[in-house]
TrEMBL record:
Protein name per the record: Phenylalanine--tRNA ligase alpha subunit
Cofactor note: Binds 2 magnesium ions per tetramer.
GO BP terms: phenylalanyl-tRNA aminoacylation
Reaction catalysis annotation: tRNA(Phe) + L-phenylalanine + ATP = L-phenylalanyl-tRNA(Phe) + AMP + diphosphate + H(+)
Organism (species): Natranaerovirga hydrolytica
Ranges for domain Aminoacyl-transfer RNA synthetases class-II family profile: 113-338
Gene name per UniProt: pheS
Membrane-spanning parts: none
Molecular-function annotations in GO: ATP binding; catalytic activity, acting on a protein; magnesium ion binding; phenylalanine-tRNA ligase activity; transferase activity; tRNA binding
Enzyme Commission number(s): 6.1.1.20
Length: 339
């Protein structure tokens, strides 16, 4: 047994010294120290030794193992250094060559406009809130004074999941949910994605984005609404921007109005952008209908409020003079690099 151990030691050390690669060195480790290695096979035969011989042979076997492991580590360090030196010579890097150009991403024009709008209204004391895109028919229509079979539903034909749930057609349901959750005063801005079954063209899409605002407090009047939107328009389009309110009808506001701003291209003189009128429509607004307040548990005799809503895509198109809304969704790098 002792002779076998000595032979294993000598053979292993010779093989280690003659090894020329790390892979070869690893094979030597497995051949001698692995589960099926030569040293392991000898140790399994110790059960046949006498009680006096077993400790002596065991000690010698441990010494052989330690010697082989030490030599393996020494040889591994030497081979690693040789391999490293070879790589340094063969794999040269010319640090004077120009670096590879990294293409940086660009903020999407809609994100830029959305952040600017948020900052404007946060500066006026508004809170940003969000709600579910899969909405109940009650919140999307009935709570907004649009009962079943109302003609206004035809204008917002949408994607129904069943009789009770649909993909929201506006972010107005967020306003209803907030009025149910908290008592006035309320000042919120609700941006988000909405859905309507429109055909895709230069100005329409079945998926688009809206930003709606709501203020409810004591003694809120139409003058407060006009003042807030005038500040918004001047902050977004410039100090010289003028605002015009045109009477309109929305089921959930009374009185209601469409809001125009002086053309960002011609300043109101008339051009192709504004079709010669000098004005461009940007949003709809009005005083919150008393029935909507009452349905949300707010006393319409004590509180009043105003609401407004705008399409984010339309605001972005006007701001950057983009003629086709589809450009906002195609993610063409050549287009996005302009912003």
């Amino acid at each position: 047994m002792k002779e076998k151990l000595q032979n294993i030691k000598d053979q292993a050390l010779t093989s280690i010294n003659e090894s020329a690669s790390l892979n070869e060195l690893n094979d030597i480790r497995v051949n001698y120290l692995g589960k099926k290695g030569e040293l392991t096979a000898v140790l399994r035969g110790m059960k046949d030794l006498s009680n006096e011989e077993r400790p002596v042979v065991g000690q010698m076997a441990n010494e052989v193992r330690e010697t082989i492991e030490q030599e393996l580590e020494v040889r591994k360090d030497k081979l690693s250094k040789v391999l490293r030196q070879k790589q340094l010579k063969e794999e040269k890097i010319d640090v004077t060559l120009p670096a590879k150009k990294m293409d940086m991403g660009h903020r999407h024009p809609m994100n830029i406009v959305l952040e600017d709008i948020k900052k404007i209204f946060i500066g006026m004391g508004y809170e940003i809130v969000e709600g579910p895109e899969v909405e109940k028919d009650y919140y999307n229509f009935e709570a907004l004074n649009i009962p079943a079979n109302h003609p206004a539903k035809d204008e917002q034909d949408t994607f129904y999941i069943n009789d009770d749930f649909l993909l929201r057609t506006q972010t107005s349901p967020v306003q209803i949910r907030e009025m149910e959750k908290q008592k006035p005063p309320i000042r919120i801005l609700a941006p988000g994605r909405v859905f309507r079954s429109d055909e895709v063209d230069a100005t329409h899409s079945p998926v688009f984005h809206q930003i709606e605002g709501l203020v409810v407090d004591k003694n809120i009047t139409m003058a407060d609404l006009k003042g807030a939107l005038a500040v918004f328009a001047k902050e977004l389009y410039g100090e010289k921007t003028r605002v015009k309110f045109r009477p309109h009808h929305f089921p959930f506001t009374e009185p209601s109005a469409e809001v125009d701003v002086s053309c960002v291209m011609c300043g109101g003189d008339g051009c192709r952008m504004c079709k010669g009128s000098g004005w461009i429509e940007i949003l709809g607004c009005g005083m919150v209908h008393p029935k909507v307040l009452e349905m949300c548990g707010i006393d319409s005799k004590e509180y009043s409020g105003f609401a407004f809503g705008m399409g984010l895509e339309r605001i972005a198109l006007l701001r950057y003079e983009i003629e086709d809304m589809r450009l906002l969704y195609e993610n063409d790098v050549r287009f996005l690099k302009q912003f």
